[in-house]
Amino acid sequence: MDLFLQQVLNGLTLGSIYGLVALGLTLVYGILHVPNFAHGALYMVGAYVCYFTMADLGLNYWVAIAAAAVVVAAMSVICERLVFHPLRHAPPIHDKIAAIGILLFLEAVVQMYWGADFRRIASPYNQILQLGGLTLPAQRLLIIVGAFSLMGALHLYLKKTMTGATIVAMAQNREGAFLVGIDANRVAMMTFAIAGALAAVAAGLFAPINLVYPAMGHLVLLKAFVIIILGGMGSIPGAIIGGLIIGFSEALGGFYLSSTYKDVIAFVLLVVILSIKPTGLFTKGVR
Amino acid sequence: MLSIRNLTKRFGGLAAVNDVSVEFGANQINAIIGPNGAGKTTFFNLVAGAMPPTEGVIEYKGQDLAGKSPDSIARLGVARTFQTTMLFEESTVLDNLIVGHRLRTESRLWDVLINSKRLKADEKRCREKAAETLEFVGLSHIGHRYIADTSQEERKRIAFALALATDPELVLLDEPAGGVNPEETDGLVDLIHKMVDHGITVCLIEHKMDMIMRIADKIIVLDHGEKISEGTPEQVKNDPVVIEAYLGKEDAEA
Amino acid sequence: MNRAIDFLLGSTMRWLLLALAVIFPLVTDNEYHIYVMALAFIWAIAVYGMNIITGYCGQLNLAHGGFFAIGAYVVAILTVDHGWPFWPAFLAAGLFGAVFGFVVGIVSLRLKEHYFAIFTLCVGYIIYLMIDKWEALTHGSLGIINIAPPEGFGLVDFTQTIPFYYLVLAFLALAIWLTRRISESLLGRTFRAIRISDDLAQSLGINLMRNKVLAFVISTVYAAAAGGLYAGVVRFIGPEEANFIHTFDMIAYLLVGGIGTLMGPLLGTLVITWLTQAVQSLEEYRMIVFGPMLVLLVIFFPRGIVGTFLGWRGRRMARQAPRKTRESRVEQSDPHGADSKEARNNA
Fold first, then answer.
1. pTM of this prediction?
2. Where is composition skewed (Basic and acidic residues) in this entry (chain C) (predicted)?
């Protein structure tokens, strides 16, 4: 039983990280209808900015996460301005190829600067809490609490602020949003900024219990895609729920089935789901 | 020709087309009109097979089209045009039309690999068909022009030609005169008449009321997915229900 | 000017290129260059496959590198672990590419646009994970060494660079010839109609699934065959062959040369391969150049080298003719129109 609860905790940790990354991806998809293949690279850059701020500048963990959020948000906005905005009317495969271009570029730059070695970020919170037979490393608790507070903050932002409400409106109906005179450029930039910041924070939270390396974004990106297909492309609650589903199935599957193939689980889920329902699990009707 | 009974399409709880029954006679021009969002395009998509109806029967020459795929419906002789027909910009007008007759050919990959007689015959037929339809729509002279250099009105005609290349008996035209000037509209009207003269049944959606009133043999009026009126242009024009539906939206005569 | 461009793109040019390729090993005494060229040809074969599904048919397949790796592994496993000679193993690679492509195609091609791209990205990753983790079959991260080279049956020795170069060249010529056949036939037109729009293609009576799966299977056979040749020349392979990077490399080749054109895949592959060679230090960090180049290409030159040439020629041809055409149109369409309008109104 304890072992099971332990896996649930692990699943929750994974799920909240995946959820954060998927949230950004789904927001961007909702606004621009671009599957942003560069999102995983933004996540990776976030981890490296954290690493740099802590290891090279010797600053505090929280400062590092904030720095990562700001830097990556800015990069994300630059990508929108320089790449996705000019391509918004291009044939559908072009924006995807451009996103891949950004991904390759960012990875190569990071690799040139830091090399391909695995790096670690020390967690400032090494305590381990014991609760009954359950082991709770403080960093994992931090991830869960941090991720969910961020999701809560995002929810408030989208519900309570004007820009937030516009993002939601535009995600639901782009053409309609143009008609009522929404400044689409501002909304798109804001969305990319949020998406970048979320990815960076996710990377910063996860890095202390994981490794930092140039290709670290690949799997996370693919899983985030699986999640948003699962939850419906463009759906915010879908991203969170999908993140948890993948997080739990990975933790439990990795423990009870096979730890070698735990990374395959998400993709098998995807293949099964799309084989049955080609438009995703929670989508209403086809456009 | 086309007999539609109790056709319904619901999205979620909303009925985009609700219990519409109508008969379209062969060799006539049938028009579907109605205010924006009345369900005209959905109606077209149902007949062309782009989406399956929730309920109802679409009987075409004794067969029920409901639930059939668009390509099999096209092979049965129902062609359609789109509001904006995407064409292959980087090739010539004639080149664009050749694929239109593909559905009447049988060549497979194997024929392509060995360059079989059947393939050669098929290609010849497709080319002839393309030239023939191009002549039909009056554009033989621009066959070798690139699509990127054609006018809006020429594109409309090319779209007609592409649909005609499939050897249809029923043609669904989605806003055939959208975005062209009145003079050009007259030319397209003539072309539609010419199609009917050659034994084709036409069914069209259009916003240009004066054009509809001039050419349609039969009009059905949709509003909020329901058929509110049908008949000759004269009957529909004087139907109080129709005037009511259009009131405040646009003048039915304009 | 038009003549020059026609010449550049016409069949004369293709024969000239072939002749150049044939004499290339005779004019250079640098064996390494011949080897690089042979490898580039192998990649070009795979890029021709990608051109069929992505260029002609418009479906961005991000698992293409995975199929290349599958072809290489089929040859490697059959020759090393099962003692097969190269040629039967090579045939098996093509066949397996077709069968596996068919299965993946049936599932993935029901998905549209983004979903298809994301799905195939995942398929590519599953292939990579499988190769990396299924040690009993693939030797895992150790890779497979001592792969059998193509047998020359006592006539030629394909472990030598120059004979192998000509072997690969023959396959490349076959690949281009086949692509040309397909592209210029009704089948190619069918694929391009799908690329324009699924809806349009269907309204013309084209069965989407059947044609997309066909294009996909053709492309995976190209990829698997290229992979098989690769295994035969390099004779050592590892899970890295299934890395995404290779798929992205191929996208870059395709885009630089001209997506959906006949000579684009070859030109793109050669240009980038030799540019990378010219700046040796680029090899590892080539993506610093490739990445932004991909972005700039899709924004400013989405049609690549060959496509841009074709567009240029098209516009020139169009400019030559307009005056003549306008007059003849008036003559043609008016008289008939007036008649039938009258007839209708009176009826």
1. 0.87
2. 324-347
